[in-house]
Amino acid sequence: MPAIVQVQRLIKNYYLGAVTVNVLKGINLEIEEGDFVALMGPSGSGKSTLMNILGCLDRPTNGEYILSGRNVALLNDDRLSDVRCRYLGFIFQSYNLLPQYTVVENIELPLMYQGKQLNERTRARCIALAKLVGLGDRLDHRPLELSGGQQQRVAIARALVNDPHVILGDEPTGNLDSTTSVEIMEMLISLNNAGKTIIMVTHENDIAANARRVIRLRDGQIESDVRNRN
Questions:
Q1: Extended beta strands in 17-61, E state
Q2: What is the DSSP string of 25-93?
Q3: What is the pLDDT of residues 102-138, one digit of tens each?
Q4: Which of 160, 157, 156, 150 is nearest to 172 (CA)?
Q5: Which of 82, 88, 122, 226 has the fewest Cβ atoms within 10 angstroms?
Q6: Could you tell me the pTM of the whole model?
Q7: How far apart are the C-alpha atoms of 74 and 72, rounded to whole Å?
Q8: pLDDT, tens only, 142-154
Q9: CATH code at 218?
Q10: CA-to-CA distance for 229 and 66, rounded, in angstroms?
């Protein structure tokens, strides 16, 4: 499989007055299309900063980030926003659903951000995705009427609506009980088996065990990069 994500000599510094904080220190990384990667590491290891750069939420200080063959490292904010909308799907620990919107309306949000006209065809796609994640009987419910697991299912459907090249999960099971966590991971595994590339931050070894590959960061560098046997 070709590499869908390529990170070369990636450096990220933060400047606090006269102090320079080196968060990422020359990361080199390739992720193949269709892979499922878990990013792990202690607090301060740089995993969240790396995830923000991979999600085009931040830019590196130096180095290259090639996404689907395009160097997005130094794009301006407008172009980064366009890349996020068109190529990436996000699943957050806190779900990030809009409470005033229904299940279907929350799934539609990325299409709205792209400036696409919402019509019967787009609504049918959102309904189909809601059914895919097991919420066909909750289409008109709002987030506060759903369990945490159901809200995360909405977030997964929302992440799929623009047919992203890469799905990024930031602690996607962090707010869920163990049973619901297993259900969400089974859903992500199914999506990966269908060909979706997934990059997920987690601090839980049992969650990381579901990925195909586990990358551990420490002090802004890759400490280990191993493939799970399963």
A1: 19-32, 36-40
A2: EEEEEEEETT-EEEEE--TTSSHHHHHHHHTTSS--SEEEEEETTEE-TT--HHHHHHHHHHHEEEEET
A3: 999 999 999 988 888 889 999 999 999 999 999 999 9
A4: 156
A5: 226
A6: 0.93
A7: 6
A8: 999 999 999 999 9
A9: 3.40.50.300
A10: 28
The HSE-up count of residue 216 (CA atoms within 13 Å, CB side) is 13
Cβ distance 159 to 91 under 8 Å?
yes
Residue 4 lies in a domain: no
Please state the domain count of the chain: 1
Q: What are the contacts of 178-185 at 24+ separation with CB within 8 A? A: 180/147, 180/148, 180/149, 180/152, 181/207, 183/149, 184/149, 184/152, 184/153, 184/156, 185/210
CA angle 22, 27, 31 (to 5 degrees): 145
The kind and range of the H/E element at 225 are: strand 221-227
* Token couple for 43: 């607090």
Copy the structure tokens of residue 20. 């320079």
Rounded CA gap, 195 and 19, in Å? Answer: 44
Which helix or strand (DSSP H or E) is residue 107 part of?
A: helix 103-113
Angle at 115 between CA 32 and CA 75, to 5 degrees: 50
Closest CA to 221 of 67, 7, 19, 56: 7
Structure tokens that stand for 123 in this block:
């609504």
Which structure tokens are listed for 156?
């997964």
